[in-house]
Amino acid sequence: MKIWQRIFWTALALLWIQAIAVLTHPITRIPSDMFAAFSVDAVLLLAFVAIGGVADRPRVTAHVAAWLLVLSSIFRAASELVMELQGRTFELADCKLFYALFFVWLKDEADAVRWTWAAVAVAAPLAITWITARAFQRIAVESKRLSVAWSAIVISQLLVIGGWVAPACSQSGAEWWRPSSLLRLCDEAIRSTRLWIDPDIVRQPIREQIEAGTRRMNEVPHGLEHLDGVDVHFVVVESYGRFAWRHHDVRPALLENVARWGASLAASGFEARTGAVAPAVIGGASERAHAELLGGLPVRDRLTWEMVIASELVPLSKHMRNAGWHTVEMMPQMPFHWLAGYDFYGVEQGFAQPELPYEGFVYHFGRIPDQYGLHRLLKHAVQPATKPVFSMFVSVSSHAPWSAIPRYVEDWQIDEQTFAEEPARRHAFDYTDVPHADGLTVAYSDSINYALQCAFGFAQQLSRPSLVFVIGDHQPPISRSARPADMSADVPIHVLTNRPGLLRRLDELGFAAGLRLPDEWVSFPMADLAPALLRCYSK
What is the mean pLDDT of the chain? Predict the structure, then answer.
């Protein structure tokens, strides 16, 4: 091979290695400065393969380096995505989450499309690893041809120099070195291995936290005598966060609609209060927010959630059942009945897709518009009830990617084919566009306003004495990346009733009159809401 060919292929190999080392998650964005900084991982692995070339092991060291670099890059991409969407560090246990996202993304596609994408998901990393191994092998071969190890030694020393000058460069605004993802991956692998060998390292503190939460929920008064048989409904609005009240693309329409909805509710005999709570999750993990909402303790990660669901803790819904309420759960997005959840929450009557004979347009996440699910809850659980009802409805229409907005049926005359026509509005988004695509905030605004309209409209259909909580479960997955960003975890909560006097007991919790969330407000932890409600409405 001629000298210019060797130089060309070596330079191309270095460019490829640099790209793999510093590229952020390609699903959302490619950084414009990806070649403006050196990767510590790339330099370390280049030194490794250079030494391997001199030691006459170019092929083995190249493949080892390629696998390490690709794995560290995938780990970095996953870490950035989880931090951006949910505001927390990535754990290897979160790999289950990406499998679930992949399934949700393709669940409405044909089997052939699913298998094709599954093959791509497997083949793409293997192909990238093979190309990266070839690039490293080129470096190893050139190092062997030089017949000296000085190049490897110099490259290794660059790491030391880089670690020394990086802080000074960062202070001056320049960043010459990208931090090592490989070392963070090693730390996480070691931590996960320790947890696998000795799970009590992490389980014991969680167990103690659950025991404390169980004592608190049991010790607070829970007779609920002040409710005097009033129906209680929790309408959980997916991704309804503080962001909706602060972002310039969402706030104006929300303010206008809230004024109209408030007047309509007042005309129907409903009082309203509004406040805010702060869940332990941000941008996703709805099931954890639901456990925190009713269970009365923070649920920050999946392991805590699994242990809470399997514990002896008595959540608010089960206290309601024990006090004489008929407990109902409406989960339109669930294709099956979640028996473990029914047992934990004390659900006596559960609605999932098998009980929802829907024949309309299939929407992106939960298939069924919120209004259809709320109508079924009203007709098949609330109106026929012979004793007080406690219900929990989990919305689906405001779930990302907010690509299809159903029409709202003003008279609530709804059957299986009411929503057979196309959506009222369409936005050309899918899950790969979240959280950075242009126009997502407008689509989010449309979705939130539709979901809230359904929730407040549901309240107006209630003829029995009722107390309705309309509450967000977490901030939307765009709150941290939009401009301006909203880094809080706060979610609004609206409380409505057609029974005079019930809401006065909430005033001491900081709730304001009406549906409008004050511009300045103080939230309290979502985990404190269930004990506070038990205390407010029990003797």
Answer: 80
